[in-house]
Design brief:
- The protein contains 12 helices and 11 strands.
- The protein has 476 residues and is of the alpha+beta class.
- A hairpin with a 2-residue loop joins strand 1 and strand 2.
- Helix 7 packs antiparallel against helix 11.
- It is globular, with a radius of gyration of 28 Å.
- It starts with a helix and ends with a helix.
- 44% of the residues are buried.
- About 6% of the residues have low confidence.
């Protein structure tokens, strides 16, 4: 016993050291899929300058970086960077729509631009592109200007516009003159859950002025971006790819840490815990079936991470992972709602039969177990639990896999993803075992009516859970 305790202590200490990793870069505060845009407008009598910035999180940066590296040596050379910046800045300029009194103003790149790859989670880089753009047009008092940014439509992220005058006052503007995110370098922590999403601006010009505009904040080329918030679990798990596995002991410690992080990840919102508990309330599922569900969750999660990783690698920029997540979540919600509706129907029918049986036989108590004993119901329910718990690959696991590919440690990355999935599944199994235990204890003590209707209520809860998941995802 002492030996086991000591071993667990060593594993716990090693996991703590790996998680701490003070030198590790933070995951992108807005999520690992985001493409964030900033357009800083400076209006002067001779035209419109646009300080345009693109900040890509780890996964889109991974996708974007591969075609930039034309010689495939894993490094972005100065010539490769120059070619990409010139081409990309013109492409970004083409997607900006600027009109002055309904007259279209063509926008073109005027400066060299800059490309940097600040460190992100798990050894992957984020990407920061800055472009100097200009639209030549005569501006004067009383004119109205409209600006619209059509770059990366459909991609999630922070979208911000600012405007200030240089030699011209702004009589009216529906955007601020200062950047809330310091040009995508420090996102406000209180707005991370609902990022700014402004792609259009309307500005009316005022009189000429001699007051010089304040300068926008700058960022050093290649410097790590100051983040307002970081997903610690994502950072810790993805960081294992580069910090662990150089020896058998470090392999063991890294896998144990990945298992623990998977369990901690599963304790967060979602991941099928509520569904697991609600389903088991009205069934006679036994522990061995819960173990089977846990194994299925682990296998499905690992498979989904590998499949999504392969698609990211194969499709590159043509594939948007957040869209896949969105529709997979909708499909999962529909399946959960269907399970709830099916269980609600069968359990309500069982209650009706039990009450009719009790009415026919006076003195005989109808007792409803809250479920049908049809094998199909059990298989469908258990399959739904496995799907809901494992179909959505964790972004942390996806980053770890892509980071492993990037540094040539694919086998180690796959092992970490599997350990992560086992940790996630272990929490679901723990919820299942606990629910079974409580269900068996409470069912003998509940009043007859409550015991009869509890499974029906849990089925209604499952249906509502699925509908809420679909609605929240579609409306997001």
């Amino acid at each position: 016993m002492r030996t086991v305790t000591r071993l667990l202590s060593v594993l716990g200490l090693a996991a703590t050291l790996l998680l701490a990793n003070p030198n590790g870069a933070q995951a992108h505060p807005l999520g690992n899929f985001t493409i964030n845009l900033y357009g800083g407008l400076t209006l002067r009598s001779t035209g419109i300058d646009v300080d345009y910035v693109v900040d890509m999180a780890e996964i889109p940066a991974f996708q974007e970086r591969r075609p930039i590296d034309t010689d495939g040596d894993g490094e972005i050379s100065a010539p490769e960077s120059t070619v990409y910046v010139g081409r990309m800045c013109e492409k970004l300029a083409d997607a900006l729509a600027i009109t002055v009194e309904a007259m279209v103003v063509p926008v073109h790149a005027t400066g060299p631009g800059d490309l940097a790859f600040p460190p992100g989670a798990g050894g992957l880089n984020t990407m920061r592109l800055t472009c100097e753009l200009h639209g030549a047009v005569k501006l004067s008092q009383g004119l109205t200007l409209a600006y619209r940014d059509d770059n990366f439509l459909g991609r999630i992220g922070w979208h911000e516009i600012t405007a200030l005058g240089n030699g011209l006052e702004l009589a009216n503007a529906d955007v601020s003159s200062t950047s809330m995110s310091a040009r995508l370098t420090a996102y406000p922590a209180d707005l991370l859950q609902s990022p700014m999403d402004r792609r259009e601006a309307s500005i009316t010009l005022g009189a000429t002025t001699d007051i010089a505009p304040s300068t926008a904040p700058s960022i050093a080329t290649g410097a790590p971006i100051t983040r307002g918030f970081g997903d610690r679990l994502t950072t810790a798990f993805a960081g294992l790819v580069t910090t662990g596995g150089s020896s058998p002991l470090l392999w063991l410690l890294a896998l144990a840490t990945a298992f623990a992080i998977g369990g901690l990840h599963a304790l967060g919102p979602g991941h099928g815990k509520t569904l697991m508990a609600a389903y088991l309330v009205g069934t006679d599922v036994r522990p061995r079936q819960v173990v089977a569900v846990g194994a299925a969750v682990s296998a499905m999660h690992t498979t989904s991470v590998i499949v999504l990783g392969l698609v990211v690698l194969a499709a590159g920029q043509a594939f948007t992972p957040e869209v896949a997540y969105r529709w997979t979540t909708v499909a999962s919600g529909v399946l959960i709602a269907a399970l709830g509706a099916y269980l609600l129907t069968t359990r309500a029918r069982g209650v009706t039969r039990a009450r009719a049986h009790a009415a026919e036989h006076a003195g005989e108590h109808g007792h409803d177990h809250g479920h049908t004993h049809e094998p199909t119901s059990g298989r469908f329910g258990l399959a739904t639990l496995a799907v809901s718990g494992g179909i959505l690959p964790s972004p942390s696991a996806l980053i770890a896999l892509l980071a492993a590919v990037a540094i040539g440690r694919l086998v180690f990355g796959l092992a970490l993803v599997l350990a992560f999935g086992l940790g996630l599944a272990s929490v679901l199994m723990g919820v299942g075992f606990g629910t079974i235990r409580v269900r068996d204890l409470v069912s003998r003590r509940l009043p007859g009516a409550l015991a009869t209707w509890a499974p029906v209520a849990s089925a209604a809860g499952i249906c509502l859970l699925g509908l809420v998941l679909v609605a929240r995802t579609v409306m997001a």
